[in-house]
Protein: Iron ABC transporter permease
Organism: Hirondellea gigas
Amino acid sequence: LAIVLNITIFGIFSVHVVSFVFAILCLAVVIKMGSFEKKMNPTSIILGGIIIGAFFSAGLSFLKYLADEGVGAIVFWLLGSFTGKSWMEVSILSVIWVFGFIFFCYYAEDLNILALGEKNAISLGINPSKIRRILLVVSSILSAVA
């Protein structure tokens, strides 16, 4: 969206800021879909994520259809190209990814406990809803930065 609409308010980080905003928007919708009951159901979160992902993928395909000269940049960006990026941008994003890796290593034990089930996690002193929300937000941030 930032490439097609030529959004440059945030300078070299415009694409990442717009990605972050839409990642958080997507996350909010997925969490809302997954928590119709008081607790967050993992199956509903996964299915909601698939639905929202398909919706945004269709929107992205529509934007690629509308964009004439910007299509090449969009396709290369989606394939992970670093064309047109400076080493400064790559180094900043690498630092963010390293912090994300350290963050997930810190929560690795909680993730293993969550894999045992919600009742077991609660009995071991873990708040599953809180941990899921924290990890979903950090995952969205890392996805937006990618």
Notes: Helices lie at 14-34, 42-66, 71-78, 87-106, 108-115, 118-123, 128-145. The longest helix spans residues 42-66. Residues 11-145 form one domain.
